Amino acid sequence: MKNAIFLIIISFLFFSCKQGRNSELKGNVESIKESEYRADEKFGEPIREELDHVLVYDYDEHNNKVKEIAYDNDGDESYHAEYTYNKKNEIVFLERIYTKDFMMNVLAKDTTYYYSNLIKTTEEWISRELLITKDITDDGVVTDTTKIDLDKNGNPFKHTHRNSHGSTSVTLFTYTKKGDLTEKKWLGYGEDVEQWERHEYDKNRLLVKTNILYSRGSASNDSIIYEYKLDDKSNWIERVKKENGKVSQITEREITYRK
């Protein structure tokens, strides 16, 4: 029986590609426990409410994420993942095992392969492609493919996703010179824009604001603001998310450093 899961999540793919040499972590991080809570606001102060989920990450000596485990609000494992990198700290392989399929409530496997195809003129990169295939059926059938085009700095600037029905969607990304994502435009399964957003960062390169310029089916332009508390190494340990001025989420991080 085939256990279909949702389409590839664009944000997951983006951050997977940015792991390693582009990690925003400072210091020699060994592990992170990230707890996300729903939140509200009382008397002008953010109030933590019920737990939504927990993510636990392990890192190697280069601050590459090598293992990830997700737990639901009951403490049950949702999935675990393992990452493999080359000598340049570029991700080359990712495998996730879902403890429970989102819809079928059974074990499911999601294997992602990264293939690098480098084109050179003299010593400069002209383009590089990563082909990601998703193996999410119990009989090993690949149902979705995504081609990711990278710029000369290794930033993914175009995602082309093809589903099992042959439909194609495109997502475009724009960056600063430092590699911070400033704009994302999703064209969906046609040439029309489905969603268009812009991002702003602080001096620590932390995302502080997202403006949703357009979202199909929405009558308003949403604004999301992030506020942080930092530890002594300038890594964030608390993040408060505000949507259109209203507190909606609090995320807490416990960071363990190598000695």
Can you put this structure into words, describing what you see?
The structure is a single chain. The chain has 259 residues and is mostly beta strands. 3% of the residues lie in helices and 59% in strands. It is built from one helix and 16 strands. Strands 1-2-3-4-5-6-7-8-9-10-11-12-13-14-15-16 form a 16-stranded antiparallel barrel. The protein is globular. The N terminus is likely disordered.
Short description:
This protein is mainly β and 259 residues long. The chain has one helix at 10-17; strands at 29-42, 45-59, 65-72, 77-85, 91-98, 108-121, 124-135, 142-150, 156-162, 168-175, 181-186, 195-201, 207-215, 223-230, 236-243, 246-257. Strand 10 (168-175) and strand 11 form a beta hairpin.
Shape type = globular
Strand share of the residues? over 45%
How do the helices and strands follow one another from N- to C-terminus? HEEEEEEEEEEEEEEEE
**Sheet with most strands: strand arrangement:** 1-2-3-4-5-6-7-8-9-10-11-12-13-14-15-16
Helix content: under 10%
| Radius of gyration of CA atoms, rounded to a whole number | 19 Å
Q: Please outline the major beta sheet.
A: 16 strands, antiparallel, barrel
Strands, count: 16
Whole-number mean pLDDT: 78
Q: Stretches where pLDDT falls below 50 for ≥5 residues?
A: 1-22, 101-107, 115-129
Counted by DSSP, the helix tally is 1
Structural class: mainly beta
Distance between the termini: 48 Å
